[in-house]
């Protein structure tokens, strides 16, 4: 292969995150995450039920509803959010299965923008960069603000197209 046709590092690692996401059995969303230090891949993870426990495809989703007070255009508004509590998020699994020493100064590539809970965990994990593809608008404002406070580079990979074979058809 001609070196000029090689994928850039962001695309390479995001492609791996999408490939990892194909292991997920979540009915709602397949998410993959990879831990990278420099150009070295240190770990991968995807969302799903704890090992040895029936997952959502076997036992159904465990949906919890939450309400959050947000201010839009100077007006207070209650926003309803639903999430599955059976599933451990990809970012959480990545933190569970990698060592703190490896995370210091590392980057996380994740298919989806982290939710507030995952962002909190990542902010305290030693990583210095989060790169994501698909946005998660429900939490993006407060997550972006926190990452700026922490000095963590937080960026969406614009113009990225995941490998076709990694695109899952999931329920909305």
TrEMBL record:
GO terms for molecular function: dCMP deaminase activity; zinc ion binding. It holds the Pfam family dCMP_cyt_deam_1. Keywords: Hydrolase, Metal-binding, Zinc. InterPro entries: APOBEC/CMP_deaminase_Zn-bd, CMP_dCMP_dom, Cytidine_deaminase-like, dCMP_deaminase, dCMP_deaminase-rel, Deoxycytidylate_deaminase_dom. The active site is at residue 91. Residues 8-155 form the CMP/dCMP-type deaminase domain. Zn(2+) binds at residues 89, 115, 118. One of its GO terms (biological process) is pyrimidine nucleotide metabolic process. Its cofactor is Zn(2+). It comes from the Bacteria. GO terms for cellular component: cytoplasm. Belongs to the cytidine and deoxycytidylate deaminase family. This is dCMP deaminase family protein. It comes from Paenibacillus mellifer. The lineage of its organism: Bacteria, Bacillati, Bacillota, Bacilli, Bacillales.
């Amino acid at each position: 292969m001609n070196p000029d046709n090689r994928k850039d590092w962001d695309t390479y690692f995001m492609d791996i995150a999408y490939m990892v996401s194909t292991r997920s059995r979540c009915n709602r969303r397949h998410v993959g995450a990879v831990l990278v230090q420099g150009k070295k891949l240190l770990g991968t993870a995807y969302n799903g039920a704890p090992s040895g426990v029936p997952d959502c495809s076997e036992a159904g989703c465990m949906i919890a509803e939450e309400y959050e007070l947000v201010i839009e255009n100077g007006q207070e508004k209650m926003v309803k959010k639903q999430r599955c509590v059976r599933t451990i998020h990809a970012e959480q699994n990545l933190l569970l299965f990698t060592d703190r020493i490896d995370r210091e100064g590392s980057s996380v590539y994740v298919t989806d923008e982290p939710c507030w809970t995952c962002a909190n965990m990542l902010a305290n994990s030693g990583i210095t960069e989060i790169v994501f593809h698909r946005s998660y608008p429900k939490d993006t404002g407060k997550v972006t603000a926190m990452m700026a406070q922490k000095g963590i580079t937080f960026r969406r990979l614009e113009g990225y197209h995941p490998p076709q074979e990694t695109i899952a058809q999931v329920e909305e």
